[in-house]
Amino acid sequence: MSSSLSRPSYSSSSRTSSPFFSNHSSLINGDTPRSRSLSFLSASPQELCLRSQRKSVQSSVVLQDGAVVVTNSSPIEKLKDGLLSIPSQEVVAELGGGEHESTVSITVVGASGDLAKKKIFPANRSFLSFWSKMTDGELRHMVSKTLTCRIDKRANCSEKMEEFLKRCFYHTGQYDSQEHFVALDKKLKEHGGGRLSNRLFYLSIPPNIFVDAVKCASSSASSLSGWTRVIVEKPFGRDSKTSAALTNSLKHYLEEDQIFRIDHYLGKELVENLSVLRFSNLIFEPLWSRQYIQNVQFIFSEDFGTEGRGGYFDHYGIIRDIMQNHLLQILALFAMETPVSLDAEDIRNEKVKVLRSMRQIQLEDVVIGQYKGTAKGGVTYPGYTDDKTVPKDSLTPTFAAAALFIDNVRWDGVPFLMKAGKALHTRSAEIRVQFRHVPGNLYNRNSGGTNLDQTTNELVIRVQPDEGIYLKINNKVPGLGMRLDQSHLNLLYSTRYSKEIPDAYERLLLDAIEGERRLFIRSDELDAAWALFTPLLKEVEEKKMIPELYPYGSRGPVGAHYLAAKHNVQWGDI
């Protein structure tokens, strides 16, 4: 899935019909008026590590990028080296024997959306063509086409796959049918074999169906012996009002600690490494303030447009889709004070403090854009409004840049610049920390007349692709003269580490199973985020602000460079 999840438009029929996927994984797919199916998946009580054949997507639970795993083993220990470690039978015996064994079921609601296609389901599109019924054998055949050994290359890999596929089943259900959720509950109990039942529901569906699904799951398919948790996929509303209404509705059926609001960027390896980089390295923490940092940039770009999936995107736009959640979450992690501990609540408390300290975003500190069609190298690239799912007169921004400020002691006066866009020249996500100039620099004359902005130190954290961290330093060019050059101290993950980097959804699914909430969004955190962006969005939409056009495949609107210059900043990715 692209970082900026674009979803297809949903018809009114999506409200009732759907397939579920489970075993202990179930999937609800809603898109056609006819009944859908639910399937069930569960893993054997061994280490099972499978993945989709799709590049860079991996899973230690089931087939990542597609179906999810459900274990019918005893409690999960922890993720070790990318593997889901499940206690041996001896450990189970120590815990008290078979009567204390447990199952974990995952029900993914929304099999036809972009997320399911690109992350929850395998990349095999033909799997999604089965809108109504499918036999267990057909399901297993589809699933088997996407599975390979991820890490474990031993001879028994095929045996593990077979063991996994035996636990894949199919069932029929609808989003808002209590009767069908009762049937799901019965099926889960049958496959649980009388063991302690833990259930995780993943809502990858339009927000208008969230409450219906939660109501049915809560009243008819909750676990009576173990825990029941619900993962909610963005968008969490369109503004403060709709977000609060959604939260209140969910809390009518669930407790806050049962709700896991997922932002998959928090599961990215380099984002999770932010606090490690800062708090476990003495050289960085003393520099992490306005005294040494001139500006911080959060840059997100995609090299493709909506490509026929503009129905969802046009209703939200790039500010809601990327900036209000992904980039703001990273900013909060970057700027927070040292938490009391690594406990989820301590970390989220500090993030909320950052968000509540942020100055209201001013319209003059925002630039919006929309990509237009262009021809390059004999290829014609369509504009945003050329997409048949987008209104011809749409003013929805596909690009936005903004300057934000945190009014506290640590960050007073430091501009935090965000930039996000579709149909740009490259695909990337990175954090750039530009440090201040060296006061009274003795070597200014030896820099060959280079712009001071190009000789300052810069820390770059590349979230994707080619994950890495590098620091720009000034260095003497070898030779008899005294000439300075800027060099990189580079940590490229693919070179330094032989292990594959886990996919963000793999990490977050495991965290939800284990009840770890550190990388999920709390309700007051969500409220603070919307409080920051809602006034801006309202002003943009009420004034019908016209986005600046930029060519498909370019670096974005020229206005973004003027915005940076206004705050004495130069974009680091130029």
Brief synopsis:
With 574 residues, the protein is of the alpha/beta class. It contains 14 helices and 24 strands.
Task: Determine the strand fraction and express it as a percent band.
Answer: 15-25%
The helix fraction, in percent, is 25-40%
**Class per helix and strand makeup:** alpha/beta
Radius of gyration, whole Å? 25 Å
Poorly predicted regions are 1-99, 120-132
EC number: 1.1.1.49
Pathway: Carbohydrate degradation; pentose phosphate pathway; D-ribulose 5-phosphate from D-glucose 6-phosphate (oxidative stage): step 1/3
Protein name: Glucose-6-phosphate 1-dehydrogenase
Catalytic activity: D-glucose 6-phosphate + NADP(+) = 6-phospho-D-glucono-1,5-lactone + NADPH + H(+)
Descriptive notes:
- This protein is α/β, with parallel strands linked by helices.
- It is 29% helix and 22% strand.
- The protein has 14 helices and 24 strands.
- The protein has helices at 89-94, 114-120, 136-144, 157-165, 178-192, 207-220, 240-251, 269-279, 310-335, 344-356, 493-496, 504-514, 523-542, 559-566, and strands spanning 17-19, 25-28, 36-40, 50-51, 78-80, 83-85, 102-109, 148-149, 169-174, 196-203, 228-233, 259-262, 293-301, 366-372, 374-376, 379-381, 399-404, 416-421, 428-435, 458-464, 468-476, 484-492, 520-521, 548-551.
- The strands form six sheets. The protein has a nine-stranded mixed beta sheet with strand order 22-21-20-19-13-18-17-14-24, with helices on both faces. The protein has a six-stranded mixed beta sheet with strand order 2-7-10-11-12-23, sandwiched between helices.
- Helix 9 (310-335) crosses helix 10 (344-356) and helix 9 (310-335) packs across helix 13 (523-542).
- The radius of gyration is 25 Å and the shape is globular.
- The model is unreliable at 1-99 and 120-132 (pLDDT under 50).
